[in-house]
């Protein structure tokens, strides 16, 4: 690896995620080198995960953070794409930034989860939990088997996940 490629591999912006905006301008601000992409496709050809690296770099340039996050989901951060980039772009670190922006700001909130947390905080399940806490193991197992949604082992019993 040449000294220049080693430098590209290590190129990583520092930021406080809570102070960022989930926009293309933000990504370009932290990684202005992104604008130097030559469209050579070396990054895609070198990716051991068969990711569309040039594709997500193009999406990053267009400010499509959701698409970058989706296309780079299986990135293992090996850095081969960066080591082969003639423009000294670190695609893996740009994708990491986009996945972080996506997770922090763009993923739709899970309303059903928020509803359940509110129910727990209101004490809706307090009596039932108190009852469960008093039960012995066999009674708990019986109660569990009645649910019908638990994973069954091949012999009809419940899988032993304690090992
Ligand atoms: S760092 Fe990610 S995108 Fe780059 S070559 Fe490795 S797996 Fe592919
Ligand atoms: S290797 Fe670099 S310059 Fe070539 S397409 Fe990928 S990011 Fe762009």
Describe, in plain words, how this protein is organized in 3D.
The model is unreliable at 154-163 (pLDDT under 50). The protein has two domains: 3-106, Alpha-helical ferredoxin (Fumarate Reductase Iron-sulfur Protein, Chain B, domain 2), CATH 1.10.1060.10; 117-145, no CATH class. It has helices at residues 3-10, 24-30, 42-46, 53-61, 65-71, 80-83, 91-106, 111-121, 126-134, 137-145. The longest helix is centred in the middle third of the chain and has 16 residues, at 91-106. The chain starts with a helix and ends in an 18-residue tail after the last helix. The protein is mainly alpha-helical and 163 residues long. α4 (53-61) runs antiparallel to α5 (65-71), α4 (53-61) packs across α7 and α5 packs across α7 (91-106). 52% of the residues lie in helices and 0% in strands. It is built from ten helices and no strands. Bound molecules: iron/sulfur cluster (2 copies). One iron/sulfur cluster binds at residues 37-43, 53-54, 57, 84-87, 89, 91.
In CATH, the topology of the largest domain is named Fumarate Reductase Iron-sulfur Protein, Chain B, domain 2
Structural class: mainly alpha
What is the terminal-to-terminal distance?
A: 45 Å
Bulk shape: elongated
Computed CA radius of gyration, to the nearest angstrom: 24 Å
The arrangement of helices and strands along the chain is HHHHHHHHHH
- Summed over residues and divided by their number, the pLDDT gives a mean of 89
Compact overview of the structure:
The chain starts with a helix and ends in an 18-residue tail after the last helix. The protein is mostly helical.
